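Troubleshooting entry. The earlier prediction with 7TS gave an output that would not parse, so I re-checked the input for stray whitespace and re-submitted. Clean input:
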Amino acid sequence: MFNVEHIRKDFPILNRQVNGKPLVYLDNAATSQTPQQVIDVIVDYYSNYNANIHRGVHSLSQEATDAYEQARLKIQKHVNAKFSHEIIFTSGTTHGINLIANGFASLLEQGDEIIVSALEHHSNIVPWQMLCERTGAELKVIPMNLEGELIMSEYDKLLTPNTKLVFVNHISNALGTINPIEYIIEQAHQVGAAVLVDGAQACPHIKPDVQALDVDFYVTSAHKMCGPTGQGMLYGKEAWLNKLPPYQGGGEMIAEVSFEKTTYADLPHKFEAGTPNICGGIAFGAAIDYMNAIGFDAIETYEHQLLAYATIKLSEIEGLKIYGTSKHKTSVISFNLEGIHPYDIGTILDKLGIAVRTGHHCAQPIMNFFNIPGTVRASFAFYNSKAEVDALVAGVKKAKMMLS
Ligand code: 7TS
């Protein structure tokens, strides 16, 4: 049974005070908090078996290698990849996207087209613009409607035989919209384009099935799903990963090196140059174990209730406008109070111990679309309580009173 009070005990940080008030942490879309179970794994690694991997004959190195490769298997199972070597450890979503963008630089030419969506995070816009500059390919954008949903009839029109790559996030960080990636993938494949899905905001809430989706690449970050920062994963179909050139050169990604010629290691090592974030990978596996023990169905149901409750309560505040009103959305509420700058609301909420994000959320095109400088964003996780939603609502009312 899902019991939020019980779950909250796993997160030591939730006991702390901020500005003399109990912390109400509602910035989960930026980064999630870490349960004791994952902290213990990190402490255990550095206390007991810290060593470099894949290279030592000594016991510590073998223990660390085993734990690291076990984590890869956990991730493989979690996203239902066919092979474990289709899971590449990265430093996060941004790294994964850049790895693919770099790889496609050798495959694209003038006249090719890349499609992104109007709902993207900057990390999903800038690497493609850089890629277009390098290759002469053209960037096209799937527009959105006022609910913050991508317009699929417009997407259909953008697809041509020249489309080589479609890039879209699974869930928008700024608005919480869940995008119809099944349809997007299917249509892209009809014209022979590859699809990369950014799952940074999806993985904290749902369990992706990369084989069922038939997605070509899927990337995410551990720190948004109870794991450490500086750690992420890239899933790629074996055939694609074999086709793409390595991203970085260095140790561990080679088969043989001489000054005349270097041959590359097999997957996944071809894309994992240098000493990785070993502890991060192991802790990522532990975070996935932790979330699976709670269960993604239970998480989804609970967060949906929290979202519905918060939406009703916040909507009752006069002059409050919510941006992103899709029926298919996750537990993110982006809003503004009429005539008040989001930063001012965020500052008052902080004084009350309530952590939200304010600003453009690294998604300036979305803010431009709504013609606003930014929003206040409250993003909920499964360990947030109804009482915390009440605290947010009371805080916003207080901010309104003080600022208007
Ligand atoms: N893609 C999406 C959809 C994101 O939300 C983020 C981070 C990234 C990519 C980049 O992830 P990273 O782990 O490589 O940094 N989003 C946010 C956010 O909404 N607030 O802070 C970071």
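This one parsed fine. The two ends are 44 Å apart (CA to CA).
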